[in-house]
Structure formats: C-alpha cells, structure tokens
Amino acid sequence: DSAALPAMMNIGTRPTYHGHRQTLEGHIIGYSGDLYGQRITVSLVGRIRGEQPFDSPAALARQLQHDREVCISILKS
To answer: How far is C-alpha 48 from the chain's CA centre?
Structure first.
C-alpha cells in the first residue's frame, strides 16, 4: 500500500536528552503498526521550528503536542 500518511520528524541531536549524534526520528500521526524493517519514503513539506533543549521530558512532551497540531494544520492545507 502506498498511501501517504501524516507525520512529523525530528532531525537533530536530541539536546533534552544530551544527545551528540545527529538522528532522524519520525512519528506517523495516528499510526499504530510496526514498520521496523520496512522501506518508506519521506517527503519533507515544511519546517516548524529549530532544535532546542527543554527543561524536562514533560516540557518536551508539551511542545511535541503543540508541534503535532501545527503539523496537522500544515498537512491539511
């Protein structure tokens, strides 16, 4: 199946968790399956914000919820 699914992605070093390596971390909104080992195609359509450290995982989670809403809005337009 080649259906496009809404998603958001972090490209960066995960500074809230003191990361140092650049990683790509994607979240398919509303998807609950297992894609490990599968080939996927990603199309970047916009940038929401730059990378920043947060004071706590809870603060990061609140920002990610906001980012999710922004992504949904961008992808609907």
So the answer is: 10
- Alpha-carbon gap, residue 33 to 38, rounded angstroms: 11
DSSP 10: E
Q: What is the dihedral of CA 36, 21, 50, 45, to 10 degrees?
A: -40
Q: Summarize pLDDT for 4-59 with one digit per residue, the tens.
A: 889 999 999 999 999 999 999 999 999 999 999 999 999 999 999 999 999 999 99
Distance CA 18, CA 34 (A): 27
Report which of 69, 30, 20, 28 is spatially closest to residue 49, judged by C-alpha positions: 69
Instruction: Report which secondary-structure segment, H or E, holds 71.
Output: helix 57-76
Instruction: Retrieve residue 14's tokens.
Output: 């995960």
